[in-house]
Amino acid sequence: MAGSPTTRDRLIAAAAETFNRDTYHGTDTNRLARAAGFAPATFYKHFPDKRAAFLAVYREWVDAEWNALEDTLKEAVGDPRAIVDVVVDHHVRWAGLRASLRVLVPVDEQVREFARRQRRRQLDWLARLRGRRVPVSGRHHEPRDLALLLTFERVADAIADGEAAALGVNPDDLRTQLATTVRQWFA
Amino acid sequence: MAGSPTTRDRLIAAAAETFNRDTYHGTDTNRLARAAGFAPATFYKHFPDKRAAFLAVYREWVDAEWNALEDTLKEAVGDPRAIVDVVVDHHVRWAGLRASLRVLVPVDEQVREFARRQRRRQLDWLARLRGRRVPVSGRHHEPRDLALLLTFERVADAIADGEAAALGVNPDDLRTQLATTVRQWFA
Amino acid sequence: MAGSPTTRDRLIAAAAETFNRDTYHGTDTNRLARAAGFAPATFYKHFPDKRAAFLAVYREWVDAEWNALEDTLKEAVGDPRAIVDVVVDHHVRWAGLRASLRVLVPVDEQVREFARRQRRRQLDWLARLRGRRVPVSGRHHEPRDLALLLTFERVADAIADGEAAALGVNPDDLRTQLATTVRQWFA
Amino acid sequence: MAGSPTTRDRLIAAAAETFNRDTYHGTDTNRLARAAGFAPATFYKHFPDKRAAFLAVYREWVDAEWNALEDTLKEAVGDPRAIVDVVVDHHVRWAGLRASLRVLVPVDEQVREFARRQRRRQLDWLARLRGRRVPVSGRHHEPRDLALLLTFERVADAIADGEAAALGVNPDDLRTQLATTVRQWFA
DNA sequence: TATGAATGAGATTTCATTCAT
DNA sequence: AATGAATGAAATCTCATTCAT
């Protein structure tokens, strides 16, 4: 079904791994190209600039998370712990990429805008979960919902980048804590 | 009372403003020095490198937050909203600096270590607030407490950098939400 | 036969002339690149740093000396004066380069190691000239042989950098003296 | 008799040690001053520039060698090995300083001129040793004598900086070789 | 006499990006 | 479509040197 990966696909995949390992500011576009098996100039045939490549990587990352989440929801409906595990695992796998994202959001308009679109989608999803109608515009959201998402993300990052462990907090206990928070939110 | 600021103080103050406005990766040491009214070389008489200057700025930032917190606690004991306001205001004022911190933590050993020391101090404080004895080593901590801190920080940052507003969530309502979370934690 | 020179070749050639004229510490990599007709960054596409460029120049210099020596030995077998002339002329032509070498040997590990490899090769050659078997390891050498080489080199340098002339010693007489020393060594 | 050392003396002594340890291009004048227990600016009260300090150090070094040589000649007249030992020991003790000298001679006019004055003094001494009259002008010198001095210096340096040992030549045997050369010269 | 404090002028190196083929 | 080769424009950091006190 899926044909052999295009040059662009290979560039994105290599960039994902490289950003994840070395951070956005820790690599350069020449290395990204070489990591995919291409020459530097090829990079610029497929992306206008470095940021654009990151954006592409980030988009894929978001899609992958949604896909994983949907798979989980089919099997384990209403099991917060399963959701926690999917999300946290995804963050753990891509901890370096997340760190890069946190670098770019305040600096790059496009990345920021995409991150917000993504956030809106999450907020809409939460609203639906709680049986509320989502207004077409999707412009208004609940503070509680946003707080939940932010907590989720921040705790997942703390587990992913080793902060929890470094502070003497068992990462597994933190996952449990997260599941509890989700349940309280849903109640 | 306080003597006139030393060169180092002036460099730190100028670096704080500059990092806050332009991001860590958005300025260079020459600009930091010029912003304080000095020549580039002067910077290196006071800091071994750029990271060291950021670390110094960050230390001051942390001290300032603790001081503000202590002042508040004297007047408004047990008022979560007051605490929320102090912390969030501090994050709002220094949103760019916080963004830079998030850039450096995954990349810079020293910054990371200092951030963790700071986190341990916060965790010890929370433990004391709840009437628990803090073990001398201070090595073990409660998942709940860490989750609270992370939530606090992340929500404060979201208010600070305009993410909440951009998503159609009233920043003030988020503050209220945060205060509620604190109360639940304390109960 | 020889294709057009590569960028690296041109950089090395320009660096040889520039180091020779201005000394290692008397130029910078930007100038080396410009002297070859390239932009500064190009230099770093071909050498990791300034020292590496010097090392490359030095290697070429050593090869050139051996080649000149071999040519001479074919025609003028056993004529010490011919050998003296070849070596001294080579030193005269590259006096500034030799001075740079003397700067770097005590300071740079790689340059030193290469200079010593080169010296071992010379010592092996002398041993063979005197009809001795060179032990495979080539680890042990005669003090007399090393003394000859050092004398040769130092006297050649003194002629090359004008020291002899400045001291009222006729450079040509010094060459003759060197040839005499060689004959005594061989006897 | 000798009063307490002046600031200048202390600067020279500290510079000698520092140049010897770190090379001329491996230190800076600030460090030289600090090593003597003074502030950077003090350095420039006593020397017009960095080279001048090196020149002063070099002068002292030369004087010390002559003094040691004269002491030896009083006791061990006509013992080449004793002379070899004095000179080589002095070179060993100050190997780094000698390396710095070799750096500066081709580059610094004053250092070069002083080195040559010193060389003339050595040549005159050799001429006297062989019972020849030294012409008043001291302008003309024997190639044999200069060759001896250069050999002496170069071999001493090779022992001092570890080159001999690195090449598998016993430094002690080289000293013996040097003594032999002196005897042949004198014969 | 000595210095605390500062600096102008670079040297080395990096990197996002281009362009002729 | 891909690339080999190159680069302009910095950013980080160094160092010999100065000057008011």
Describe the overall structure.
Four copies of one chain form a homotetramer. With 187 residues, chain A is mainly α. Helices cover 74% and strands 0% of the residues of chain A. In chain A, helix 1 packs across helix 6 and helix 5 crosses helix 8. Chains in contact: A-B, C-D. The first copy, chain A, binds a DNA duplex (21 and 21 nucleotides) through helix 3.
Overall pLDDT score of chain A: 91
What class would the helix/strand composition of chain A place it in? mainly alpha
- The percent range for helix content of chain A is over 70%
- Per DSSP, what share of the residues of chain A sits in E-state strands of 2 or more residues? under 5%
What is the oligomer described by this structure?
Answer: homotetramer
Low-confidence stretches of chain A: none
Tell me the CATH topology of chain A: Tetracycline Repressor, domain 2
- Determine and state the CATH class of chain A: Mainly Alpha
Instruction: Give the termini separation of chain A.
Output: 43 Å
- What is the domain tally of chain A? 1
Which overall shape of chain A is indicated by the principal axes computed on the Cα atoms?
A: globular
What pair of chains forms the biggest interface?
A-B, 44 and 44 residues
Q: Please describe the biggest sheet of chain A, giving its number of strands, its sense, and whether it closes into a barrel.
A: none
Number of strands of chain A: 0
Total count of helical runs of at least 4 residues of chain A: 10
Radius of gyration of chain A: 18 Å
Order of helices and strands of chain A: HHHHHHHHHH
> In the CATH classification, which architecture of chain A applies?
Orthogonal Bundle
